Amino acid sequence: MKQKLTYIARIILFGCFLLAIDICGQASDATHIAFASRRTGNSDIYIMDIKSKNIQNLTDQPAWDFSPTFSPNGRWMAYVADRDIYLMNSTTKERRWLTEGNAPEWCPDGESIVFVSRRSGKSNIYKTDINGGKIQKLTNEAANGSPTWSPDGEWIAFSSNRGGGLFLSIYVMTTEGRKQRRLAQGRNPVWSPDGKQIAYILDIAGSGVYVMSADGQNSQRVTPENIWSEHPAWSPDGKQIAYEAEIENPWGNPNRDSNIYLISSAGGTPRRLTDHPGRDGFPAWVPEGFLSVSPTRHTQMRLWGTLKKFDGD
Questions:
Q1: Partner of 65 for a Cys bridge, out of 59, 103, 110, 217, CB 3.0 to 4.6 A?
Q2: pTM of the model
Q3: Is residue 71 part of a domain?
Q4: Which domain holds residue 20?
Q5: Are 78 and 58 in contact (CB under 8 A)?
Q6: Concatenated DSSP letters for 221-246?
Q7: pLDDT in tens, 217-236
Q8: In 3D, which of 30, 31, 33 has the Cα closest to residue 259?
């Protein structure tokens, strides 16, 4: 009886330990950002540890690579190579062609990708499955771009020049292209992880990153004024925004040397992540699944094996 109680106690302690590991793993912040860089003269996609600043090249090839985006489980990275969208396998690093287009964005369920294409003449938004076999056109009016999914997978925000004028506006629609409506002036929208806010670019006092509520209200600038900023990307916990910024002479500069910065989603002092004469841009947070097999799983397997061995002694 005493031996059985000891065994049960071990199981309980083991379960509590695994729960603690899982909680710690879930609470940990994302540590890597992917981005496009022209540091070698050609645009390639790199991955960077934001703590150690260790940088690795993911797409060392002649094509012009940019706009990385990751499947929710981290198994695939979609990106643009010249004028086509490719998928890269996180394990083998092998790639396959998906479709013609740019600005890909994964659906939260990992089953679809929304993207931009001029296949019908003007720039419009399309949706496809991850095999590229079923393509659906979602917009028809004017020129449209920069699509992004809401975290619940029910809405798509995008930029459009419909209505005329010098500036783009942000619209939302259902994932089938219905109920299209304008939210606010701006472009390049990105939903916050909780779906309550949208970060976007507004061309006032230098292109800057702004944050507004999901209904288009309560807009506030996040990045410093009079500095060219582009391509915001929310951290998975919603506390930070990575973005591309050019400090020196961005306007009309064909060889701008923009870099990747990190700032609180509430604003404040930005932190510079890259520092290179070649342009760094299009930041995207990298899910843990793309980096490696979860260490939590290895720890669980090792501990379970140790426990079973101990019980057999």
A1: 59
A2: 0.82
A3: yes
A4: 1-29
A5: no
A6: E-SPTTSEEEEEEE-TTSSEEEEEEE
A7: 999 999 998 888 999 999 99
A8: 33
